[in-house]
Write a structure and sequence with these properties.
globular, alpha+beta, 87 residues, binds FE2/S2 (inorganic) cluster
Length: 87
């Protein structure tokens, strides 16, 4: 598992192995708009301020993924222990 921190509130939430970032945040009342939930549409794209993304989408180009400044929380995860999200 890893954790996501919400930049605006400073709150940190654990993302369990069997849940997405979107699901983990929704459990705490934080809603991110989604559509495909498969990393295709880009609806859920969220800016990443700190931490290393583990991109699992088909939406971003390799170049965009390498920038590590946004990800798709419906399916992508973290390589680092914490991801700080611009929410
Ligand atoms: Fe479509 Fe995340 S909801 S990419």
């Amino acid at each position: 598992s890893f954790a996501v921190r919400i930049a605006s509130s400073g709150q940190t939430y654990t993302v369990a192995k069997d849940q997405s970032v979107v699901q983990a945040l929704l459990a705490h009342g934080i809603e991110i708009l989604t559509s495909c939930e498969q990393g295709v549409c880009g609806t859920c794209v969220t800016r990443v301020l700190e931490g290393e993304c583990e991109h699992r989408d088909l939406y971003f180009t390799d170049e965009e993924k390498a920038k590590n400044d946004q990800f798709t929380p419906c399916c992508s995860r973290a390589k680092s222990a914490v991801l700080v999200l611009d929410l």
